[in-house]
Design a protein that fits this description.
This protein is an alpha+beta fold and 488 residues long. It has helices at residues 3-16, 21-29, 44-47, 68-80, 129-140, 154-160, 167-170, 198-204, 240-254, 289-301, 316-322, 354-370, 388-391, 425-434, 454-462, 466-476, and strands at 35-37, 61-64, 85-88, 103-106, 113-115, 120-124, 142-143, 177-183, 189-192, 213-220, 222-223, 228-234, 238-239, 264-268, 276-285, 308-314, 341-348, 373-381, 406-414.
């Protein structure tokens, strides 16, 4: 059976299920100057490759528009042919849901960015976080709260939350959204804000991409802090009891930590030693170095004597670079690196019990040492003190975790970051969850876990907002044009 026959068979099957691939092909191909990739064209493999190589994706079309009218036309074509549409902003969806549609709209060529005199920034969703941070600082010494990875796109990051180290001062990235330019499921263009399309505006801030294709956000920026103190508290590998006690002390300190202190605890394996774990604390302090030393003194006083505290006063951009990973830059000029991984998350609403912490650290030390993966666990402080994240009323946006205290990211890659993914990888990460919280009540949707059941992902990611999100979905996308496995 030849390739053309295979395509014909696939297209026939799609029509049989109500999808008309031929009609979509004709319609999309008629859009002037639009670059289109299909399984039979050169460049398709690269265009359809996910960030997470553990996931297989095979969209029928990948398009790279350069204008909003092109996006509108693509969505209208897909809807008429009964094909689903997904949007790739940065492409970092852990479950590759940006590539899950029959038609993928890759926004990489739509990177317009304007910083206005009133401090608002209009940002097309082809922009990545590093590009936005650099542009608004260079143009006006402005800042936004957002994640630390510069390659993450502004689309999904904002739609599901947008946590970053500056979040306890500035809130989530979605909290800064003034309005959204949105292509609806029928191809029409609307602006959603607090006075127009208000239900849609509510859903887009925390409910994800199920409701429309956001082509641009308008964010309210803030003046960049004049000084950022980047810090780290490191230890030699410690036995389980000492790690558990130090981490419990970190959690207790975090409950009243000032908003200016961004806090993360990071755990990595000590291979071959079943009773040891590598742990460190790090983050930024938005103030002076003297203030930082004074603030953390009570924590340092109760840590093991081997604790080594280092700090460096930096500018705003340098502070972002210090947390940007191994490259030490927020530039996205080099190609992004793929990974092959599985991840889960846990949202907690208060300090963990000593028994839970000991159970979890013991699991990391034992099973973590045996695992055939390269793993880390990162715990970020969302709440505590008077966090700006917690200050927003719980139903003001679709983000369901305003009561979050900590968010755990549990992440295990294949060795070398390339396939195949080891068979013990998913069970190992599942155990990282169950050893701490047997039945989690919340998870962060920007760390999508495709192994969850329908009920699990709805409750863990969206909690009490599920019913309202379902009703908005019926109103704005009744034919499920924007559809994917963990979407409404």
């Amino acid at each position: 059976m030849g390739i053309s026959t295979l395509i014909s068979v696939a297209a026939f099957a799609a029509v049989a299920w109500g999808k008309d691939i031929y009609a979509a092909q004709a319609c999309i191909s008629s859009i002037s100057s639009l670059v289109i990739f299909t399984p039979s064209t050169p460049g398709y493999a690269n265009a359809s490759a996910p960030f997470n190589l553990r996931i297989h994706t095979d969209p029928s079309f990948v398009v790279t528009p350069t204008s909003v009218p092109q996006v509108q036309a693509v969505v209208a074509c897909a809807a008429q042919a009964r094909l689903s549409v997904s949007t790739k902003s940065g492409g970092h969806s852990y479950a590759a849901y940006g590539l899950a549609g029959d038609v993928v709209v890759d926004m990489k060529n739509m990177r317009g960015l304007t910083l206005n005199a009133d401090g608002t920034a209009v940002v097309q969703t082809g922009n990545r976080l590093g590009e936005v941070a650099t542009a608004i600082f260079d143009q006006g010494q402005r800042a936004l709260p957002h994640g630390s990875c510069p390659y993450v796109g502004t689309g999904g990051h904002t739609l599901y939350g947008g946590f970053g180290y500056f979040g306890r001062i500035g809130g989530l990235l979605l909290d800064t959204v003034v309005s959204a330019e949105v292509v609806l499921a029928n191809g029409t263009l609307v602006t959603a804000d607090n006075s127009s399309h208000t239900d849609l505006f509510w859903a887009l801030r925390g409910g994800g991409p199920s409701f429309g294709l956001v082509t641009a956000w308008t964010y309210q920026t803030v003046p960049a802090p004049p000084t950022t103190v980047n810090y780290a508290v490191t230890f030699a590998p410690l036995p389980v009891p000492e790690v558990a006690a130090a981490y419990a002390a970190w959690e207790a300190f975090a409950t009243t930590a000032p908003n200016e202190l961004a806090m993360a605890a990071i755990f990595v394996p000590v291979k071959g030693q079943l009773d040891m774990v590598n742990m460190s604390f790090s983050g930024n302090y938005y103030g002076t170095e003297d203030e930082f030393r004074s603030v953390v003194a009570p924590l340092v006083a109760v840590l093991p004597q081997s604790a080594n505290v280092t700090s460096s006063p930096l500018g705003w951009i340098e502070g972002l670079e210090a947390l940007a990973g191994d490259n030490g830059t927020i530039s996205t000029s080099q190609p992004d690196q793929h990974d092959t991984f599985f991840a889960k998350s846990i949202v907690t609403t208060g300090p963990d019990s000593n028994a839970s912490i000991t159970s979890w650290v013991t699991y990391l030390a034992t099973e973590g040492s045996r695992s055939n993966t390269t793993w880390f666990a990162q715990v970020d402080l969302y709440g505590g003190g008077k966090s700006a994240i917690s200050a927003v009323p719980p139903d003001a946006t679709a983000f369901a975790h305003r009561d979050a205290f900590l968010v755990y990211q549990l992440y295990a890659s294949a060795v070398g970051l390339v396939p195949p993914y080891p068979k013990d990888g998913i069970p190992f990460v599942d155990g990282m969850v169950s050893s701490l919280v047997p039945k989690p009540s919340g998870a962060y949707p920007n760390y999508m876990d495709p192994t969850l059941t329908h009920h699990q992902w709805q409750q863990l990611y969206f909690g009490n907002h599920v019913n309202r999100l379902q009703q908005i979905k019926k109103a704005v996308d009744p034919k499920h044009v924007f559809e994917f496995a963990e979407g409404f």
